[in-house]
Structure formats: structure tokens, C-alpha cells
Amino acid sequence: MVAGPIPAGRTNYCMNRIKNYIGQLRLYSLADLILLLVAIRADRLEFIGAIILHIAFLAYLENKHSHPYRARVPRWISYILAIIGVLVYGKIEGIIYLLFGFLYVKKTRKLGFVSPALRGLQNLFIVAGVIGYHSVVTYIVGGLFLIRNLAGDFRDMAKDKKEGMRTFPVIIGVNNNFKYIHIILMIFTSAVWWYLSSTSISWLILIIIIEISTYNLTPR
Fold first, then answer.
1. What does the H/E/C string look like for the chain?
2. What is the domain range of residue 84?
3. How far is Cα 65 from Cα 101, in angstroms, rounded to an integer?
4. Is residue 5 part of a domain?
């Protein structure tokens, strides 16, 4: 028996779901992380491990938050990726990264106002695992991620308030969204990573193109 054509409605549903999952990967953030890892000269295992840990964190975040406008991510995916990421990265900082990621996910409860600091610490430790704690770059990265995540909270203020999140802008009573502040700061941090990396300007141009073109793929 020859199977009939797939109904158009189901095809559209599958395509929209795939697009939703791709959006949840936050390709703009992944591109920025890749440039950062190049800048700190991560070796092959550190590079791959850090990326897997990042995706594991995103998968856990999406599963726990369960936003109605995002497709559900099975929790077991985050667990498997976390184990693989820790083993490949091969440093205690990989486990610390996941610990701060777990605390960050609690931003819907009492830890929302410190969530930018938690993201800063996450990335501080993942960088420290590569270049150590003696380098000023480690702390620059942590500080810039803190500021960038705080900008994301200002971007999402209205949505976060509606969803009951206790982020810093919600607590202090900010009433306006700052739509472009996060992407602007992301481009700035990518420029910093590029400057530290001594790579061709074409790298930075490519990263910025990826960030701008994929930023709105993430359902918000």
C-alpha cells in the first residue's frame, strides 16, 4: 500500500515545532560562546565540553520553566548532556557550572533578583577551568555576563512580571521593556571576545550576523 501525502496541517505543525526547538538553542548565545572559547584558547575537549554543558543548561532551563509558547524539552535530555559535558570538559568547574545553572533556574522563586550574578558565576568558572583564576580575563568574563543577563531581565520585564518572576527590574518597579538592550550588549561582549582572540575581523562580522539573524527565533 502506498502511503498518502502528509496533511499540510501536520507538516506545518512539525516545521513549527522544529523551529521552536532551534529557537530554544539560542544560536546567538552559542555563537558568542564559541568566540569566547576561541579567545581563551580552549583545547578540543574543553571546547566541546563547554558547548555541551551550555546546551545541557538550556535544556534543563526550558524543561523547568515550561513556557506555553515553547515546545517541551524532556528532562532526560538535560541529564544526559550534563553527564557527557562534565566528562568531556574534564574539570571540576564543569560541575560548578551546572550547580550555578541549577540555582539560576530558581529565578521564578526567590532567587530571581540575583540571577544575573549566577549566570556571571557560571561563565566565570567555565572560563577559569581553561585559563585559571589568576587571569583578569576570567573576572572580566564573569562581570560582562552578569551585566548582559541583567540587560535580558530588563528586556523581559513585562513578561517576567506577568509570569511571577522576581527579577531585579520587577522588584524595583521598572515599567518599560528595553527591547534591544540585550542584543546590543551581546554584540558588545562578542566584540570583547574577538579583541581578546586576535582573530580576523571576519570572525566578528560572522558572529554578529548569526546573532542578529537568529535572535528573534527564540520564542519570547
1. CCCCCCCHHHHHHHHHHHHHHHHHCCHHHHHHHHHHHHHCCCCHHHHHHHHHHHHHHHHHHHHHHCCCCCCCCCHHHHHHHHHHHHHHHCCHHHHHHHHHHHHHHHHHCCCHHHHHHHHHHHHHHHHHHHHCCCCHHHHHHHHHHHHHHHHHHHHCHHHHHHCCCCCHHHHHCCCCCCCCHHHHHHHHHHHHHHHHHCCCHHHHHHHHHHHHHHHHHCCC
2. 15-215
3. 13
4. no
Q: pLDDT, tens digit, for every residue of 40-59?
A: 999 999 999 999 999 999 98
Query: Are 154 and 169 in contact, with CB atoms under 8 Å apart?
Result: yes
| CA–CA distance, 95 with 3 (Å, rounded to integer) | 49
Domain presence at residue 53: yes
The Cα-based distances of 199 to 44, 164, 179, 206 in angstroms read 17, 43, 30, 12
- For the segment 107-116, the average pLDDT, to the nearest whole number, is 69
Cα–Cα distance, 154 to 148 (Å, whole number): 10
Tally of domains in the chain: 1
pTM: 0.85
